[in-house]
# Entry
Amino acid sequence: MSGPARNVPQARAGAWQTVATVTLGTVMLVLSSSALNIALPLVAERYRAGPLAATWTVLGFMLVQTCLLVVAGRVADRFDRRRIYLLGVLVFTVASLGAGFSPSIGVLIAWRVVQGVAAALVMANGTALIAAAVPPSRLSQAMGVYLGLMAAAPLIGPSVGGYLAENVGWEWVFWLNVPAGAATLVWGALVLPRSRSLARDPIDAVGAALLTGWLGMLVLAVSQAGSRESAGTGWLPAVAGPLLFLGFVVRQRKAKVPLVDPSLFTDRPFVLSGLATTLSAVGWVGNVFLMALYFQNTKGMSTAEAGLAVLPGPIVGMIASPIGGQLGRRFRADRIAVAGALTAAAGLAIPALLLERDTPYPLIAAAMILVSAGSGILYTANTTVIMMGVPGDRLGVVNGVRLTLHNLGNVLGPALCVAVASSRLAAEDRHLLYATAAARPSADAVAALVTGYRLAFAVFAAAALVASVLLVIAARGRTRAATLVPPPRAVGEPPVIAEEPVEDSAENPQSGRGA
# Structure
């Protein structure tokens, strides 16, 4: 990954204004999306939607965002990142207004797809804007603030969504984005710096279509697994998915300018860290999604009560991610990431082993806190490891790949929740997965749901353990690489492997890299 390095002295001016602006816009869209999770029972009741359609109001957004992140990364490298970021905020704001007025579940899903397109433009540009603006010695701190708030947003969302849905209507989960989006547009237009085009490569539209197709088939296969609505179409993702994947791989190898740089996947530590990102996100997002449903259809809580019940995790997550950034100034970031993965696995194992209908709330809260703390630290540390050493003209595409892998976990988390949690229910009772407190399931259905919940948490805990193993292997690979004599680098190109930090000072430019 060669190219011009970031202009560090110039980047110091206005760096924290950029961090604040990018954080506001990103948190807005992440918060809105997660707030919808807690309101899904009310949405399903309003439109008389089945579990598959209700779930796809979430999955449709996540899938489109995930599939377009790499494309958006290419766009970010070719054009003014400021302009593309603000365009994404504008489209998301308009789509939020339309979503609240949707006359049917199909129209709502369509607006969510539009929101997913906008979110890809915002997400692919956010970290790249920060990485280009913040000096390397402060990047770990900036990432801790940005990723801490961004990581907490999907966990705080259920609390916000529960309050809005119960007190003013679920439509306000979307309409609240209108003033927030307008404020982001005005502030961003004033403070975000313009960036010159760093790449002129064409965008691989065929590769983007193949990527969208095979990821869509993957998510469809998982989501259909727990729904009786998949009858007669279950063969489609099983056949089309592998074919589209193979087509995507062939296209990337033969394309003059591939959508995803194949050389990225020759870097073993990058590949392992990326896979760990996906696996950890599955449990982090799935944990909150599942607990929100558990409190409503098992504990009989209202939407607002369930939103408050999941709040301990987000509060700790907001603190944990910045702490992960600070720890990165004293310890190796890859080691911090492993510790975070193991902490999250421990939190997920608690409900996998002990969850019952009458499980004491303090035990559930402790589990959620462990998951959020571990995942928050892992996310910040692992992102710092991946993004360090990336030249300025590759920030967008590398960040797009990283976010694609993370968002793939975000998509698979809810899909696995639906598939595994409802697997113990009789076919005629699977709609009860989204039952509200006013229509509580029978005792037998609740028992089946709890069994499904435990099984889902066991899957999530296993994924977190595998992530920790992958991170250990990746860390060892970086350590071995650091002992070798590095090859000659282009003038101004930052090293891929940074030295372990010694102290926080201007004379120690590697401080904060921790890997």
The radius of gyration is 22 Å. The chain has a mean pLDDT of 77. The chain has 17 helices and no strands. Residues 443-483 form the longest helix (41 residues).
